[in-house]
Design goal:
Layout (H helix, E strand, L loop, with lengths): L9 E4 L10 E4 L2 E5 L9 E4 L2 E6 L11 E5 L4 E3 L6 E6 L9 E6 L2
Antiparallel strand pairs: 1-4, 2-3, 3-4, 5-9, 6-7, 6-8, 8-9
Length: about 110
């Protein structure tokens, strides 16, 4: 096919601040997970699909399969839609007090 570009499982981006390997970054409405450490203002790669264990609001109770939203101020997942961006589905339940949750990103 002449118009094939790539499989879409990764994306190149240039963060304005340093990003750690495995850290989630919101690109408009697309949540990506950095493949490796990326220095500020340097081109790097992020994964655009898959299931990742990411930080969540510790007081949220997350049921399996619910929509999850990215709070870009706190850099964590939440069940609260207001003022946040929908970024995936909970792949595992996580109760009050849990600081991470499994999420299928961009689902």
């Amino acid at each position: 096919m002449k118009n094939y570009v790539q499989d879409g499982k990764t994306i190149s981006f240039t963060p304005t601040a340093a990003v750690a390997s495995g850290e989630a970054v919101l690109l408009a409405t697309l949540l990506v997970v950095a493949i490796g450490a990326i220095a500020a203002n340097t081109l790097g790669e992020g994964v655009t699909e898959g299931v990742f264990e990411l930080p969540k609001k510790s007081t949220d109770v997350v049921a399996l399969g619910v929509d999850l939203y990215w709070d870009d101020t706190e850099k964590e997942l939440t069940t609260t839609a207001t003022d946040n961006t929908k970024v995936g589905k909970a792949w595992l339940a996580a109760g009050n007090g849990a600081e991470t949750v499994w999420v299928k990103i961009n689902a």
